Amino acid sequence: MSQFTTPRLRFQVSRFQDHSVARPELGLDSILPEALVRRVLDEEGASRRCVFYTPWLTFWAFFWQVLGPDPSCRAAVKRIAAWVARRGDRIDDEDTSPYCKARARLPESVPFRLMRTLGHRSHDAVAAEWLWCGRRAKVVDGTTVSMPDTPANQAEYPQPSSQRPGIGFPIARVVVLFCLATGAVIETAIGKYQGKQTGENTLFRGLWDEGLAAGDVALGDRYYGSYFDLALLKARGVDSVCRLHQRRPNDFRRGRRLGKEDRVVTWDRPARPDWMDASTYGDFTETMEVRMVRIRVAMRGFRTRLLDLVTTLLDSDVYTKKDLGDLYRRRWEAELHLRAIKVVLGLDVLRCKTPEMVRKELWMGLLGYNVIRATMAEAARAHGRVPHRISFKGALQTVHAFAEALRDVPSERRGWLWKMVLASVAGDGVGHRPDRAEPRARKRRPKPYPLLMVPREEARNNLDDAA
Fold first, then answer.
1. pLDDT value at position 435?
2. How far apart are CA 334 and CA 128, in angstroms?
3. What is the pLDDT of residue 18?
4. Alpha-carbon distance 447 to 435, whole Å?
5. Mean confidence (pLDDT) of the chain
6. Is residue 288 classed exposed, middle or buried when 0-12, 13-18 and 19+ CB atoms within 10 A define those classes?
7. DSSP 3-state helix, strand, coil percentages of the chain (rounded to 5)?
């Protein structure tokens, strides 16, 4: 249905284009200022056609849609209708089609740029006492997301080859670089799940220019501890701490001894990989010194009893074995951050039917995630806490509970209300249970429905035949 079918809607368009009329506010001025959003909208060429769903209104609705408990477009339009009604007006047509078209017009780069800007800003504002050994640490990890089974999504992000057509879902690989101190997303990349140059290492290398700076410490699992990755990062002034790859020898009788099960060893340069050209390969030295540390885990409930770490931090006086063990233990926080993104924010299964909208939904969701993380960091600074000891779910619930008041409160009272938000966020601590042991099993039984093993249309025809 056209957006200009009724005189009433034409009148609403003219009113909302008038700058003297109140516009919906995010209510998060100290975290995501409206001036920043509008500047990015202008720089990225957001459409300014004379329609009801202006770029700002579309962004406002889209942001709260992905951050709210109901991510449907209908709920987003209802939110807009409620905001209009509180000002004594109404929307005659609550069809979601105009809003969906407005989301499609919104440039994909808008939420992506805002997500990166907020992530870098949170990381740069890290308090000195939150640093690891005086260094800025960043943790990398990868995951996957699925999306609706449409031809466009299948063409861009094909389903795994092990699944039959019509049964599986398109799947994309996502690599995220987090700030260890605040948990904010600094950089992220998305790619196909399978195929040449689609692995986590390849996506991670694409984040180095913008995501890593000289003096940083990159923390990752054994997937990121290859000779070339360690050497390339070291050439940038970035040190690495990773778990030793299972195919690497871990003989602690060799090399220069720094302490018990703590050695500096020499690695030989491997053969040139397919992704590297000959000239780049020739720039590597034939050997490289790395430090290997063995951490013994004696805690009940931990599956891994031995952790062999590899790092380019060779000075054992500055970076002790205990420091490295404590740092690698915090690598698990990346898994918790991904759980917050995929489970708490519901980005595990994306809802959009085209690749561009899938990415847009993901970037907007990560922007909302960074808003919550920035709020947690501000609350931690104001109340003498550390961000990773504050509950993400509790912070999200607080922002949801205060959202309407933050959007509608007069500007002179917003500062006081924001202090109440920070106090509430800081009060939701994460329980300190370092030795907690729980079985990795569920008591609640799933519903006893069989799996769909044929395409849905075929299954539907089989039902007709059975009848």
1. 66
2. 21
3. 46
4. 33
5. 89
6. middle
7. 45, 15, 40
Q: Which pair of structure tokens corresponds to residue 327?
A: 């740092």
**What pLDDT shows up at residue 466?**
63
Q: Which of 21-30, 217-226, 322-331, 420-429 has the lowest mean pLDDT?
A: 21-30
Residue 62 structure tokens: 């889209």
CA 20 to chain centre: 37
d(CA 304, CA 27): 45
User: Which has the closest alpha carbon to 428: 378, 376, 381?
Assistant: 376
Contact predicate 95/1, CB 8 Å: yes
In 3D space, the residue among 205, 187, 190, 16 whose CA is nearest the CA of residue 118 turns out to be 187
Q: How far is CA 213 from the centre of its chain?
A: 20
Q: Which 3-state string (H, E, C) describes 192-230? A: ECCCCCCCHHHHHHCCHHHHCCCCCEEEECHHHCCHHHH
Percentage of the chain beyond pLDDT 90 is: 66
pLDDT at residue 166, as a whole number: 85
What is the structure's pLDDT at 427? Answer: 94
Q: Summarize pLDDT for 21-71 with one digit per residue, the tens.
A: 457 888 898 999 999 999 999 999 886 666 788 999 999 999 999 998 899
Q: Name which of 331, 326, 371, 458 is nearest 32 in CA terms.
A: 371
What is residue 190's predicted lDDT score, i.e. its pLDDT?
A: 96
State the virtual CA torsion across 397, 402, 407, 413 in degrees, nearest 10.
-150
Please give the pLDDT value at position 246.
83
The H or E element that residue 61 is part of is: helix 55-67
Q: How far is the C-alpha of 115 from the C-alpha of 178, rounded, in Å?
A: 12
In this predicted model, what pLDDT tens digit does every residue of 217-269 receive, in sequence order?
A: 999 999 999 999 999 999 999 999 999 988 888 888 889 999 999 999 999 99
| CA-angle at 100, arms to 103 and 169, nearest 5° | 95
C-alpha triplet 124, 127, 131: angle, nearest 5°: 90
Strand order across the 239-243 sheet: 185-192, 171-179, 137-146, 217-220, 239-243, 306-311, 287-296, 262-268, 256-259
Question: ∠ at Cα 338 (32, 297), nearest 5°?
Answer: 130
Give the C-alpha separation, 378 to 422, whole Å. Answer: 7
Burial status of residue 354 (CB atoms within 10 A of its CB: 0-12, 13-18, 19 or more): middle
Residue 21's pLDDT is: 43
In the chain, domain spans: 7-107, 109-221+331-379, 224-319
* φ, ψ of residue 318 in degrees (nearest 5): -85, -45
